[in-house]
Design goal:
Layout (H helix, E strand, L loop, with lengths): L3 E4 L2 E4 L2 E2 H8 L3 E5 H14 L5 E6 L6 H9 L3 E4 L2 H9 L7 E3 L6 H10 L3 E4 L2 H13 L4 E8 L21 E2 L3 H8 L5 E7 L10 H21 L3 E3 L31 H12 L5 E4 L3 H4 L3 E12 L4 E5 L8 H5 L5 E3 L8 E6 L8 E8 L7 E4 L20 E6 L2 E6 L19
Parallel strand pairs: 4-20, 5-6, 5-13, 6-7, 7-8, 8-9, 9-10, 9-11, 11-12, 12-13, 15-17
Antiparallel strand pairs: 1-2, 2-3, 4-14, 14-15, 14-19, 16-19, 17-18, 20-21
The structure holds ligand LLP.
């Protein structure tokens, strides 16, 4: 579900023709829909209404100030993974008391900053981390709220690079060891055992792995709640989105859930999980990223050249793997549509960027209308893990970003000035 639709033959974001945004801001351009962000957040929030809960947006998926502010105003919390993210969230209006600090490698400086700001909890990934947090909290004369991340050893059946809940992964504390670690943690003076957390992977398109993981950890959570007086249980993020509505035959392996075709909706998620969670009487936390931001953004790019090689019809566009790395990195599928609808027979095309790597592509053998130089394309579902994973590879400036709200639009990130890319560099003293 999203608000990128054709009005007549022109693709619009909410009420604004995307071509108009391109005229004003150029390409490559990220465009976000505030209504889509809001509705996704609200759907989850409503689905969890029967229990005390907090939706903490995983801001690693999209950390633009305007996006964060939209969610902060709705009352959302944030899942942060670095001091930088916490600073960003606070700058966007987030309440630190609604932020959970995740990640396997928190530094002392990051822990200190997060304690000073008063985060809701640290999601702790190892025993050495627990000891470090205890030590830093002691030095600040504070008590650190912590939750241990349980690794339930459940296969999420998603892409190998984003599955996190098995013992092959670096994440969390093994299910069998968790009770012992809590018992030792309870003896550390500067910690408050506030909750328990898990996250099994990203882009899960079926509710079954969530259910399996919750069922598996439930007795443990109950025991920990009773023994240590826990306040919350975070079931992580990972709710998948539809990248390819045409599916099923076009559905790449990345997308397929082993459990089949059941589409994951907040209602189904709640229907299956709430009966298990409700009796716990704990506050339930969720850390969704992609579900909220994924379909709320597109990347718009202009065709620079059409190159016909006899075997292939290449559309060489002005966006590249440095702007959106998902196809190159995960073989991910992004739907691609022209800004102006065209008639005629589709042509099988490869949409590629200008970077000198064959991995720099957005689509291969994709049926697209016959398009020419100067025509623009939209890569859909680029709101999550798009801009945030951008880089300056090939000294390419980061794209501009626009937020749309009804008939209004605003530049929410200026295109990076090219000289800024090397501004922090200098010659060595002996070269001056
Ligand atoms: N909580 C934890 C502990 C996580 O590691 C993640 C994502 C999330 C929540 C949010 O997951 P989500 O709801 O967005 O699925 N770059 C990859 C995705 C990496 C996900 C990393 N962890 C991609 O483009 O598909």
């Amino acid at each position: 579900m999203h608000y990128f639709r054709y009005a007549g033959s022109s693709l619009c974001c909410e009420e604004v023709p995307v071509a108009e945004l391109v005229r004003r801001h150029g390409t490559p351009l990220y465009v976000y829909s505030q209504r889509t962000l809001t509705e996704h957040y609200e759907k989850l929030d409503r689905a969890l209404a029967p229990v005390d809960h907090l939706v903490c947006f995983a801001m690693k998926s999209n950390s633009n100030q305007a996006v964060l502010h939209t969610l902060a105003r709705l009352g959302g919390g944030f899942d942060i993974v670095s001091e930088g993210e916490l600073r960003r969230a606070i700058a966007a209006g987030a309440e630190p008391g609604k932020c959970v600090f995740a990640g396997v490698g928190k530094t002392e400086a990051e822990i200190k900053y997060a304690l000073q700001q008063g985060v809701y909890a640290f999601n702790v990934e190892s025993e050495p981390e627990l000891q470090r947090i205890n030590r830093v909290a002691g030095s600040l004369k504070k008590t650190a709220p912590v939750a241990l991340r349980v690794n339930p050893n459940v296969d999420a059946h998603t892409h190998a690079k984003i599955t996190t809940g098995t013992y092959e992964n670096k994440f969390g504390i093994a299910f069998e060891e968790v009770a012992g670690v809590y018992a030792r943690a309870a003896k550390l003076k500067h910690l408050r055992l506030r909750g328990v957390q898990m996250h099994i992977g990203s882009q899960l398109t079926s509710v079954a792995p969530f259910e399996e993981a919750v069922r598996k950890v439930l007795p443990l959570v109950t025991e920990l709640r009773d023994r240590h007086g826990l306040e919350f249980f975070s079931i992580g993020g990972g709710l998948g989105i539809v990248y390819n509505p045409a599916l099923e035959s076009a559905k790449p392996a990345f997308w397929k859930s082993a459990a089949g075709r059941e589409i994951l909706t907040p209602a189904l998620y709640a229907e299956r999980l709430l009966p298990l969670l409700q009796p716990l009487g704990l506050r339930i936390l969720l850390e969704p990223g992609r579900f909220i931001s994924g379909n709320a953004g597109i990347l718009v790019t202009r065709i620079e050249y059409v190159k016909q090689t006899g075997r292939k019809n290449f559309l060489i566009v002005d966006a590249a793997m440095n702007d959106l790395i998902r196809p190159a990195f995960y073989d991910a599928y992004h739907e691609i549509v022209p800004l102006e609808k065209k008639r005629g027979k589709p042509v099988s095309s490869d949409v590629v960027g200008p970077v000198c790597e064959s991995g720099d592509y957005f689509a291969k053998d994709r049926p697209l209308p016959r398009l020419g130089e100067g025509d623009c394309l939209a890569l859909l579902s680029a709101g999550a893990y798009g801009s945030v994973m951008g880089s300056n590879y090939n000294t390419r400036p980061l794209p501009a970003e626009v937020l749309v709200h009804g008939t209004k639009s605003a530049l929410v990130r200026a295109r990076q000035p090219v000289a800024e890319i090397w501004a922090g560099e200098q010659r060595a003293p002996w070269q001056r």
